[in-house]
């Protein structure tokens, strides 16, 4: 399957410039759209913390009825 989309989250350098490595299979002409991000994008490091704060962890996983899965 040919890749047709490339998404990167990047920070401009001190000159407000970005460098993008474009895959060869994209050819010689691409469209670039730059969007401002209002908040930090979750990373692998902070995703676990975000999940732990969610209602699923406290309401479903903490439910004593779910302990049946520990006996398998």
Describe what you observe in this structure.
By secondary structure, the protein is mainly alpha-helical. Helix content is 22%, strand content 0%. It contains 2 helices and no strands. It has helices at residues 44-52, 55-61. The longest helix has 9 residues, at 44-52. It starts with 43 loop residues before the first helix and ends in an 11-residue tail after the last helix. The mean pLDDT is 79.
Q: Helical content, roughly?
A: 10-25%
Low-confidence stretches: none
- SSE pattern: HH
> Strand share of the residues?
under 5%
Question: What's the overall geometry?
Answer: elongated
Total number of beta strands: 0
Major sheet details: none
Kindly, what is the distance between the CA atoms of the first and last residues, rounded to a whole number of angstroms? 40 Å
The number of helical runs is 2
Helix/strand structural class:
mainly alpha
Which whole number gives the mean pLDDT? 79
CA-atom Rg in angstroms: 21 Å
